[in-house]
Structures are given as C-alpha cells and as structure tokens.
From TrEMBL, chains A, B:
CDD domains reported in the protein's UniProt record: CAP_ED (cd00038)
Annotated HTH crp-type domain residues: 160-235
Keywords assigned: DNA-binding, Transcription, Transcription regulation
GO biological process: regulation of DNA-templated transcription
GO MF terms held by the record: DNA binding
The name this protein goes by in its record: Crp/Fnr family transcriptional regulator
Matching SUPFAM superfamilies: cAMP-binding domain-like, Winged helix' DNA-binding domain
Amino acid sequence: MEVKNGRSISTRRYPCEKCPLRPLPAFRPFTSDELAFISQFKKGELTVAKGSTVLIEGTHSAHLYTVLFGWGFRYKLLEDGRRQVLNYVMPGDMIGLQGSIMGEMEHSVEALSNLMLCVFERDELYALYRKFPSLAFDITWLAAREECMLDENLLSLGRRTALERAAYLLAFIESRAASVGLNGGKSPVEIPITQTHIADTLGLSLVHTNKTLRKLANRKLIRWLERSYVILEPEALREIARWSGSDGAPRPLV
Amino acid sequence: MEVKNGRSISTRRYPCEKCPLRPLPAFRPFTSDELAFISQFKKGELTVAKGSTVLIEGTHSAHLYTVLFGWGFRYKLLEDGRRQVLNYVMPGDMIGLQGSIMGEMEHSVEALSNLMLCVFERDELYALYRKFPSLAFDITWLAAREECMLDENLLSLGRRTALERAAYLLAFIESRAASVGLNGGKSPVEIPITQTHIADTLGLSLVHTNKTLRKLANRKLIRWLERSYVILEPEALREIARWSGSDGAPRPLV
DNA sequence: CGTTGACTTGACCGTCTTCAAGTTTAGTGG
DNA sequence: CCACTAAACTTGAAGACGGTCAAGTCAACG
C-alpha cells in the first residue's frame, strides 16, 4: 500500500459483487451484466484522510470516483479566499464527472471524514457509453440529480432567510445521509462538519451562523456534539424551511 | 398550425441539416450519421410566446427541447411566492432533461422572448443512448455544463457582494449570448429582462437591485434601453466580479 | 504548557429590505 | 384619439438582518 498526501491506494477490499452500498433500498437493482462491467471498470480503491483534498479546481484528473464510505464536500474559491461550499458528497455519489467530461475541474473536493473511493479511469468512460447504454443513462441520471440539488441550494441561498437556510441544509443532509446508512445504524444522524463549513454553505458569516444554529438548538431540533451536529427533528426543520423533501425513489449507483 | 396557451407547433421550418446554430464556432462539428439520427429524433418545432410558461414544476413532460431561437429562464418557487431564477436558457441549451430522466420537473421554465424550440420525445431518449453513444455522451456533457454554471451561480449568491453579483450576472449572460449570436450581429448584447428578473436571480430585493444596477450604469458599463439591458463593458464587469470567464471551447448541440 | 482550531458572545455598524409614493411606458377599450 | 390601467422603473426614509470587530472559553495536540 502506498501512502502520499493523506491518500493511499489499497487492494480491492470491496469487490463490486460484495458492494456494501448496492443492497440498500436507495439504489436500483443492477443486472449481472452491468455488475460485471462495473467490476472491471473499477480500477481500485482510494483512501483519503479527513481534511485532505481529493480534487483541485483548475487541474485535470485522470480519474473518476464513486464514494464508498465517508463524507466530503465540493467547493469553489474566489481569488481573495472567500469560499462557497457547493454541495456535500456521500456514499453513492460520483465525483469528478464534470472534470472528466469537460477537461478541467471547475471546483475542488475535500474529505470531511476518512473517505474511501472506488477509482475509475477517465479514459474508459467513453467505452462505458459505447458498451453499456444503460449505465451511460445512469451517469446522466446522477448528473441530473446533482443539478436538482444545486437548484434547491440556489433557491435556499437566494430566497430563504438565515434560519430557513440552516434548517433546510441540516434537513437536506440528514435525509441524504439516512438514505445511505451514514448514521451507522443509530437513529439520529450525526454530521461531521464544523460551523465554518456550515457558514460557507449558507453564505453567512461564521458569527451569524453560530447564532442561527443556536436558535435551532434552543428549540431542541438539533444538538451539538463534539465537532458535529445531531439532527433530532428533521420533520420540524423541513417545516421551517418550507421544504417538502426529496422523492427517495431508488437511484442508480455506478 | 395549432395555437394554444401562447404555444404553437409548426411544421419543420428548420431541418437539422440547415440548422442555423450548428455552423457557429461555439458548437462542435457533427458527423453526418449523427446529424441524420438527430434529424429523425426531432419531432417538430414549438413556438412559445414571450411570457408564457414552457414547463411547470411538479408536472411530467413527454417532451424534451433544445432552444433554437430566443431567451428564457428556469426558476423555482417557495410556497409563499418567493421566486429564485436558477439560470437562463439560450439557443443550443437543452431544457427538460432533468424531468425526462427523473420523471417530475423540479423547476419551471418561462419564455423571456418569443422562443422557438426543437421538440424531442422523452420516450426516445433511451433509444438515443443505445444507438448513438457519442450523442449520449454529448447529453451528459450538456448536463455537466449546466452543473458548472450552477456552481458559479452558487458562489455568486453565497459569497459575492450585491455589486459583484450584478456584474457577474450581466457579464455571464453577455458571454453566453455573444457565443450563440444572440446579439443579432450588433456588437453590444441586449438582454431582454426586467429588473424583477435580475432581482430574483441575484437573491436581492427589487429596490436594491435597481440601486445596484444604477451604479453600474453610472460607470457606463451597462445601459438601460426599453426594458432590456445593454452590456457595454463586459471586461470591466468581469473584473468587478472577479470572474475569469468561461472557456469557450466548442460544445455539443443536440 | 503553549499553541492552534473551533466555538461563543456582546457591541456596533452597514448592507439590504421594506414601506411608501412617486414617474414613465405600453396596452386597452370607449 | 384619449382616458384608464397595469407593469416596470425610480427614489427616499426607516429599520432589520446579518456582518465585522473584539475578546473571550475550551479541548486537542505536540
């Protein structure tokens, strides 16, 4: 095993046939043909340490990844350092697709926890399109889903108040995390992010974010716990944000 | 010709072989095979009158469109009527893909000018994936491009000031419009939107948007002209927004 | 045991919102 | 052709929401 920059490439501990994600109800069932193709499409596993950067804005990447375990986030920077978190990445999410298709990464990705990724070759993506149209369709599906999430985030930043935004963000992350078993069996989901991350997601200052989260905590909708948030009442948060929630229909997993 | 709700379906005045968009340098060249397939994929043309709604959030659509002429915008609403404009659509942009793939539309689309659309059948999309992997790849390309634009818009809403946001938005629209000849040959691009649209895009109030645009107009970077804005100095706007601009590499057109 | 990163809290200030009252322009019907 | 209306834009004033500044506490870490 090779270790560098908080990254290490391991042998394949999780063959696709024994993928821990695939059996979850959140994902659509796959045919054995599809599974066999994905299995040879997958080149290995990459472990990224908490806090290190997976992909960097402005660079080219020879790889494409799917998250197997852990949390991360996508972000962009302004020249003077202002940072905007665009979305969070969780198990089942593909990262690096935009860079694979358009050439250069337009955003960066950082690990919020230790992260395990399935590694694919960018150069083989086109072969997938030629040989497995159903998987190609799935990849477009994933891109459309990401677009949907970004649309909702834009609505949030543009038109929701600070309290609504915070409620939306936490309810949103909770629902995604719960659907892929990120709570690890425990019922209230625990999100490993700092208030700085939340502030950079909501487009608010750190100070104001702190005061806003306190309001939610005072109402006992969330709880603070050693550098992470626990979501106690996702339903109440959704109501504050006036968010109906996402549909939860099974989605593809590549 | 049938007319209903400001919509009319015409015979095919623009066969794909004589597509006015395709020769533009903004689009990648296509093989004759691809062109032939797209030509039979296209079912007709739809004309939508300025101000009418093309697609509605929460509904299912049997169609998928590509914009041939004109301007429009995608938006989402909050229950109480707050509106967020997500992005603008211009010639060469595909609309309704998200709904075609995921079933239900998660946003609405409205025409800013009279709009002419190429109409495709949602049900034939999968056949395209089976028969023309190169076009399937192109569709993913377009989805990735949309994602890129949304990321930049999120950065803008979250981390740019009102003046920077306005400058970014106008420079952004200008560069997209210019690349597809929406200026109609005239050098400064004229954007047919109201200040209400701009406000709903920037996440600002109408009053503050008005005052912010005035600052840009006072510096002679933009000019107001009969219910539309003229962009005089895109370069200066980009500098205010600290935006480097998009790459301008040829993109696919389906 | 000093340093660092994360969180907290209060005070003050400015950007942006809201309210209110206008003007101008385009469209409509008498 | 003109009065009427609605939509879009404009402007000023007051106030709220959120930002910035400053000075803390606390836990983890070498």
